[in-house]
Amino acid sequence: MSNLKKEEQSKRTKKRLLLQSNSNQDRLINNSKTDRFILLLNKVVLGLVVLIVMIPLLYVLLGSFLQPHILVTRGISFNPEHWTIDGYVRIFTDGTIMRGFLNSILYAGGFTLISVGFSILAGYSLSIDNLVGKKALMIFFLFTMFFNGGMIPTYLLVRELGMINTPWAVILPGAVTVWNIILARTYFKALPNELKEAARIDGASDFKIFLNIILPLAKPIIFVLALYAFIGQWNSYFNAMIYLEDRSLYPLQLIMRDILIQNEVQPGMIADQLARAEMQRIAEMIKYSSIVVASLPLLIMYPFFQKYFEKGVMVGSLK
């Protein structure tokens, strides 16, 4: 036991010395004036970019907690006496915004499942070398990537399919994109063929190879495609504005559009006896609170998807 402890201690000492030598080498390499100037310039530029991005976000976040008259007359205030959560209370107690939030989750979730499922299946099929008609299929997909029927023919098609004023009108159109299929195909082609050949020797079918070998290795591209699809659908409101007539089916982004652009606030949010000036002040507070609530799912998702998102950018660069 004592010998094992000594060996472990020696290994730890070697690792520590190796890390120290590497850090010393890095310091020696980056010790030139040109390198230090470039690093300093990079830090300054990145700091400015962070400030440009963070200042509007902090302004909206702080504005959502300020009292309406303070926000309108004085702007942002750090005095705790001027803070309030009335905007969030009105949002979470209002049925219109919460229904829109749930609708957005339904649309984005269904859109993501369909998009990722079909993109993975099509991408894996096109990555097989001996697929019959592979070139014809790729030409067909690429043709649809550059040419489409346009908004009016698409609307007529959706209407003829009976999807007007239904959730399917928001979920199905545009769920499968050629770009995502190409990303999945590029990822699958990078996987070694020896894995599939070894599985075939063991008697595995194509379905088992895809289910038990390919899919576990495809987690990075699955998460990347899911992130792309969810964010794109979550921020979308144009299809809902065209195809939906029932306000109970509106997604959150379309409701926010009415609040932010058209300055429409539902009567249920504000008591009828309030004066018009007070209504405008509370509407201003609801705007900021709505922006924060609408951004929460994306802010929660992205830290868990970040490493896969970086891999997805590399896959796209190898296209």
Outline of the structure:
Helices cover 75% and strands 0% of the residues. The protein has 319 residues and is an all-alpha fold. It has one domain: MetI-like fold (Orthogonal Bundle).
Structural class: mainly alpha
Main sheet overview: none
Distance between the termini: 54 Å
CATH class: Mainly Alpha
Over the alpha carbons, how many angstroms does the gyration radius reach? Answer: 27 Å
Q: What string, H for helix and E for strand, traces the elements in order?
A: HHHHHHHHHHHHHHH
Helical proportion? over 70%
Subcellular location: Cell membrane
GO cellular component, one term: plasma membrane
Main location: membrane
Family: Belongs to the binding-protein-dependent transport system permease family.
What does this structure look like?
It is a single chain. The chain is mainly alpha-helical. It has a single domain (86-317), classed as MetI-like (MetI-like fold, Orthogonal Bundle), CATH 1.10.3720.10. The protein is 75% helix and 0% strand. The chain has 15 helices and no strands. The protein has helices at residues 2-29, 33-63, 68-73, 86-93, 95-127, 134-146, 151-160, 168-171, 178-189, 193-201, 206-217, 219-234, 238-243, 252-260, 276-317. The longest helix has 42 residues, at 276-317.
